[in-house]
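Q: Predict the assembly, please.
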Amino acid sequence: MSSQNFLDSGQKHRMTNQRQVILEEVQKVNTHPTADEVYGMVRKRLPRISLGTVYRNLEILSTSGLIQKIGPPSNQMRFDGKADNHYHIRCVSCGRVEDAPVETVDKLENTIREISDYSIVGHKLEFIGICPRCEEKRKSFS
Amino acid sequence: MSSQNFLDSGQKHRMTNQRQVILEEVQKVNTHPTADEVYGMVRKRLPRISLGTVYRNLEILSTSGLIQKIGPPSNQMRFDGKADNHYHIRCVSCGRVEDAPVETVDKLENTIREISDYSIVGHKLEFIGICPRCEEKRKSFS
DNA sequence: CTAGGTGCAAATCATTTGCCGGGGC
DNA sequence: GCCCCGGCAAATGATTTGCACCTAG
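A: Predicted assembly structure:
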């Protein structure tokens, strides 16, 4: 364990029918579908389901740790004035991004290059955490 | 070499004034600003610049390799039925995502945990490449 | 003159949210 | 009864694009 299902998931959710179907469909394929694609898949079994419901349930399922979201925690693009390869660390809470002071792992890139049938052109590594500032705020609540 | 400025950049661009200012501002800070924040920064020097121009130039600067974009190549969220931690490989060209068959590097996570003042909760590693299918298409053009 | 560049506003696209009736416990 | 749920449509927010003018080479 290491990545994903960050942050709390402190809610009570029933496993409803649509939720179950969405979960099954996402688990059935290995194509890492977009929300829209999931919508298409699920609609074959539940023609009257709405896109909003799919989004809501994908969100619930991923914060419950049953599936995972692939993509940035915050969906706003950020830019870095340094063009060389280095890693970042992102705060789950406020979205702030800083540089992560570790060496790059180009070794891994070579490994994957041998195994995979993709032409590898690079990799991205991002750490996820809670920044000191947000940690502070969090304390003042409890 | 390793990350970023993937794919061609086969265009001729002049270093115009606004382009230069945007570049300088992004390089000046180490906060990894969003497009909107860059807009704010740049506007102090060029009050009449438009947000559209900022977006256009950030795009050009990053495909030219002068700065880098932090975030997913495609800004559409994807979902994975497998909840355990594993890495992905994404095609620059079509956006397809597959699993990358390499072991996780939790060692790195511990390293960063010691160095950084963030509470680390996980990490994400994503390889970027061109999938066989797109590679094929590419050939048929040349 | 031609191509790229810019400001501006409108359009697009993914995702989120408010409302409201319905069912589970 | 209370609360979560799901369908629907409208709202939001980031990013993109069409258009008309402008300027460098």
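Residues 14, 16, 34-36, 51-52, 55-56, 59, 75 of chain A lie near DNA strand C (CB under 10 Å from a C1'). Chain A touches chain B through 77 residues (CB under 8 Å).
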